Structures are given as C-alpha cells and as structure tokens.
Amino acid sequence: MDKINICDLDFIELERYIESIEEKKFHATQIYKWLHRVGVTTFDEMTDISKSLRQKLSDNTFIMKMEVLQCQKSKKDGTMKFLIGLDDNCAIESVLMRYNHGNTLCVSTQVGCKMGCKFCASTKEGFERSLRACEIEGQIITVQRYTGEKISNVVYMGIGEPLDNYDNVVKSIRLINYPLGLNIGARHISVSTCGLVPNIYRLAKENIQCTLSISLHATTDEKRKEIMPIANRYSIKELLDACKEYIKITGRRISFEYALIYGKNDSYEDAMALVKLLRGMIAHVNLIPVNEIKNGAYKKATEKSIEKFMNTLNSCGIVTTVRRELGSDIDAACGQLRKKYIDKNKSLDNV
C-alpha cells in the first residue's frame, strides 16, 4: 500500500487518520504542530509522542521533503529568491521580501504556467503540474527553516495561476491560517489572479478574509488580449462584475495590479480609462514597473510616465501606489531562475 503524504492532511483529516490507526485523537494536535509550525523533516524529531507511534507513522506515511536548490540574495535590499526542489525533481520559485511591517513571501502555486502572459517568464517553459496544498505551504516552512526568520505575510504571486489550482490553493490558505500551524492571519494573505472569472465568484463564498489581487494591465479588451491571452475568454466587464460581487460578499477591498509597459499601456489616456473602470469600487491600484525578461518584447515604462500615471489616478480619487522594486540585481521576474535551472539540466542531458 502506498504511503500517505501526512503533510497534506488538514487538522480534521489528521484527526480522522490518527483514529483510523487506533491511536488517541489528541495526538493529532502534537503531530500537526510538529509538521506545520516547527517544520520537522523526520518523525524522530517528534519527541513528545511515543516511539511506537512514530514507527507506525513512519511505516504508513511520509513527510514531504522540499529543499533549497539555489538562493540568490540582493546586495541592494536583502531580497532573497529561492529555487526550491520538489520530491519529483520539479523546481519552483519563492521570493522573500523584507518590509518594515514584516517579512513577505511570494509563493508559487504551479510548476510552470498555462496562462501565457507576454511579460512573464513563468510561462516560457510551459506547464508541468499544479502544486499540492502542502507544497504551497511548504515553501513558507522551507524558507523559514533556511533563513531562521519568521514569515508574517504571504502573497500568491509566484509561478502559476492560483485560481487555476483552486482547490489546492484554498486548502493551502486554510493550512497557513490554522492556529496550530503557521497561524498567519487571512488578512495577511493575498491571492493574485489574471482573471479566472468563475473562480472569483467561488472564492467570494469561501469565507476567507484574504486580499484578492487582479492582474488587469490594460483598460480595453483589445489591449488586454495582446498582453494576456485570458482576455480572450473573459472580457474586462465580466471580470469587473465578478470583482464587484466579491467586494459585495466579503466587504474586502480589491487590489488591481497594473504592469506599466512602455508605449503600450502607460499613457494619460490609459490612466483616465482606468479611472473610469474603477470609479465607485472599493479598490486600490498597484502600479508595477514591468520586469524586462530575456527575449521579451516589452520594456519598462519611464519613471516620469509612472509618476504621472500614479498622480493622475490619485487626483481622481483612485488610491494608487507604485510597487517598490526589490531584487533588481537578481533574477527578480517570476520564472527566470527556474528557466536557468531547466536550461542547465537540458544541457547536461545532452552531454
């Protein structure tokens, strides 16, 4: 019989499993803390449970292993980018960003991405698979173990489209939020989507007080289709209707991500069109100077146009900030470190 990945069980599932192997249910609390709060890698480290129970767990379950394959650290601001290996030899990326309000980890939700956004390196090597809930949470545990630092905020903005891996993402949020584990508040968790409309409606009903971030990046369907293929499936109107419903149900403000691309979407007219789209909504706009990726067609907007765009929106009552650029001296854009890893492995295979 195949062993069970014990890390992927939520607390209720773990209680049921412990009872199924004829052990007292209270052991689930001990085991859950070891796995999700302490982040042990072996059952022998669970020193407050009996040796017989540890052996029983070892015989029937396994603790998922994730390891840091490579780490880059910015000399400018201390941002750290991690290439993390999974148990099937796949690799994903996580980014640790340090702010005055605490450490934020940007986590991946898939190995590769299907969405094909033109400015993103994540899609360059195609899609392999979605991550399990424990692999999403495991990025936090792995980075905390590697750095010795606590993560207090989590953003689902790494490799992959979170709402394309809906069930695992929702389960991972509950794992991350659970009091016996990492205990990171839902309001300190942000989920970004390129706009999978049906799953925005689903997320609104999950009773999770996380922040929803929408990758908008254009003010017309025509422009958005050029930048983001998802726009061929859902119009901006359909997307904003879903956002309004999310706000209505949750009472939570939505953050709209807008990557400023030189000569594409950074004009005064674009700014005013964005004002028109968002006026009346509980919303915040986060302007992102687009990361220039190798062989990419898009260039970063100028500092002058970024400032003008921000001032235009703020003057019209749309709360707008410019995302602080972190890790500019390392492979900052999603997918670039993984792509180098894949290219290196391909070259070794050809030797």
- Terminal residue distance: 38 Å
What is the overall shape? globular
Q: Please work out how many helical segments DSSP would assign.
A: 11
Which range does the strand content fall in?
Answer: 15-25%
Number of strands: 14
Write up what this structure looks like.
The chain is an alpha/beta fold and 351 residues long. The chain is 36% helix and 20% strand. The strands form 3 sheets. Strands 3-4-5-6-9-10-11-12-13-14 form a 10-stranded mixed beta sheet, with helices on both faces. Strands 1-2 form a two-stranded parallel ribbon. The longest helix is centred in the middle third of the chain and has 15 residues. The relative contact order is 0.12.
Task: Write a short abstract of this structure.
Helices cover 36% and strands 20% of the residues. It contains 11 helices and 14 strands.
Core attributes:
single chain; 351 residues; alpha/beta; ten-stranded mixed beta sheet; globular
